[in-house]
Structure formats: structure tokens, C-alpha cells
Specification:
Layout (H helix, E strand, L loop, with lengths): L3 H9 L8 H9 L3 E5 L8 H8 L3 E6 L3 H9 L3 H4 L2 E3 L4 H15 L1 E6 L1 H10 L6 E6 L4 H4 L11 H7 L4 E6 L4 H10 L4 E5 L7 E8 L2 H13 L5 E4 L3 H13 L4 E4 L5 H13 L4 E4 L14 E4 L6 H8 L9 E8 H18 L7 H16 L5 H8 L13 H4 L2
Parallel strand pairs: 1-6, 1-7, 2-4, 2-5, 3-4, 5-6, 8-13, 9-11, 9-12, 10-11, 12-13
Helix pairs in contact: 2-3, 15-16
The structure holds zinc ion (ZN).
Amino acid sequence: MEDADQICRVYFSKPGLRIHQRPVVNAVLAGENVIGILATGGGKSLTYQVPYMLSTGITVVVSPLIALIDDQVNGLPAALRESTVILSGDNGMLSKSISQAVVGAGRCLIYTGPEKLSHFIRSQTLPAPVIRLVLDEAHCVSEWGNTFRDAYLLLPTLWEQLGKPQIQAMTATASESTLNDLMSMFPVSFTVIRSSIYRSNLFLTAIEHQATEHRDNHLQMLIRNRVGPVIIYANSRSYVDRTTKWLCNLGLRVEGFHAGMSLTDRGEIQKRFIAGQTDILVATIAFGMGIDKSDVRHVFHVEPPSTLEDYQQQVGRAGRDGDSSWCVVFDTMNKRRHRNDALRSATKLAQGNDRDSFSYKLLLRKHALERFLKLGGCRHNHLMVYSGEAPTKRHCGHCDNCCGR
Ligand SMILES: [Zn+2]
């Protein structure tokens, strides 16, 4: 029988599993329910694709974004693609494709969003047992479950309807509360496997300016001195449009990206950035999940993101090739005051509320971000402690506070 490393070599042209992938794959192959927290760029997909190739039956991968699914499936080796079905379109036809894969390969890898999965299994019977349910970008279960992706709340029911298969939940960021949300969703025990989130090639800086003009001047200076591709994050579409226009006027190869654009436009913009035809991408949070561009050298936030989880995800898109990269989050005094006033009022109002409620936990996440921004100590250490890791060094040498800026 083939083993995991052989699968890596034969089908994925990789020398073998990487050090962080191995414990996850071993636990999955041992039949355990696994929550795997692998740093961005740690190769999460391989940790369920390799076990898939070593199993018979159906593996269902629930992923939050169709664009992300398309990218992943397009990148699959031919041997896997042949038995892979994306749940999109007519249910009858999909059923037929799944049966063909099961007959031909003895297995089928189904990629789907939670909504479509629910819709599909209401009307169709699967031709073989589902042996594994994979939750990709599993932090969405917690962050989105109670907001605009109600379908994530269906996951425990869907899991039962699929015959209570093994669960493999993969994410790049999971604070203790996200982890607890995930674990309390399913009545099974999980093995939690966490690789360190510490990325020594990322230089983290947070800067507060008195006024937006100072911030813009500073950003402009950093952009002029850039050494490679840049992602600039902003929280609103209007801010993205304004920043894109401003940088365009400076003669830079820049494009904007946000959820108000059509899927086709977004796909094209993304492709141009990945291909290096655009140097700078100004984006909302809508950009980046599952994007495979290894040489992003700078991630700038023109304003702080909403939570520390968002921050971690977004800076995690820099330097996936392991080379030095720079992440700067800008803030302005007025905005910070307004934010903190609003946060104080919301926290006061929430006193006495259910501490397990989503809104209460969101407040805690916002407080965590504010603490990170005005922190005097090591930023990497702060992120590690927030993610439940023990900090390894007092001074990392890779953040503004440790280097005295
Ligand atoms: Zn540090």
C-alpha cells in the first residue's frame, strides 16, 4: 500500500509531507477527529488531499468561497481532479458525476459550500459512504456562523445526515474562543494539532498618525521604496476606490478589489495580481482567502482591520516564500478615539449579556485588536499568546517594538 510520502511524490511532485503537515495527516489516517491549525502558507490542502488518496469512499470538503474552490480544484494534480466534483449546478448531473468517480476511482472528493451541500443532500442519495467531512477555513464556523453565513449553523445537522463521518477542520487562525466554538458544534472529541503561528520573516509594525494626510504621506513613501508586490487593506469599498485612484494618479500599477465588483472582474483582477501585471492591490477583506501568491513583500493596512484574527489572516499573505516581508498597520488618533469610545459604550451595554454570545465574543476580539495596536511589547509574542501558544522569545527582533523602530 502506498504511504503518505509516496502520494506526495507520485501525485503532487513534492518530496514528502512537511514537518507541520505530518502530525495532522497521521492523526487523520488514524481515524481521529482533527482540528489542524497551520500557519498561512503551511499547506493545509495537502493534509486532506493526501489522506483522500489513501482512502476509498467520499470525502466532502466544505469551503466558504466558490472562487476559492475553483482555484483549489484547478490546481489539483490530474489524478485527483478526475475523481473531484464541485457541487455547483444541476443536482441530477452532479449525482451522476459522483457515481462515475466512485465507480472509476473507488473514491470521490466533493468540494462544496455549506448552502449547496444542504440543498444537494435533501434531494440526492450519495452512492458510497462519506468517510470524512473536511471544514476548510474552519474559523469561518465561528466568525461567520452567526452573521451572514447562516448555513454554517447547519453543519452539525449536515454532518449527521452524512452519517457522522470523521471530521477534519483546518484553519490558519484559531484563538481559544474560535476553537471552543468549533469544538462545541460537534458531539465528538477532537485532537487539536497546532503549528506555531510565529513567522520570523514578517516584520510587524503599527503606526499612529495625527492626521490622514500624514498617514498618506508615510504610505506613499513606503510604496515608493517597496521591494515587491504590495497588498493594501482597507475596511470599506469607498476607501478602496479612493486609495486606488490616488495611487493610480501617482503613476503606479494598482488595482482595487472588493465585493461590490462582479465575480468575473474580481477573478481577472486577482489573476493579474498573481501574474505580476499589477504591482499593488488595494482590497477589502474580500480579497485573499486561499490566494496562492508566495512573493507578496508588503501588507499595509490603511486603517486597522476589525479583529486581531483578520489581522493575522491578512498579514499571513505576506512572505509565504519565506523571504523577508513588511507589514504595517496604520491608525489615526481621531479614528482610534472614536473606535474606543464606541467600543466602551458597546461593552457597557453588553454587561450582563450572555458571555458565550457571538456579539459579546466579537467585542472581546475588538478589544484584543486595540490592545495589539497600542502594545509596548513584542507583537509576535502577543499574537502567539492570543492564539494560545507559549511565547518563545522575549524579543523577536522582527517587530517595531523589539527594534525600537
Ligand atoms: Zn518583537
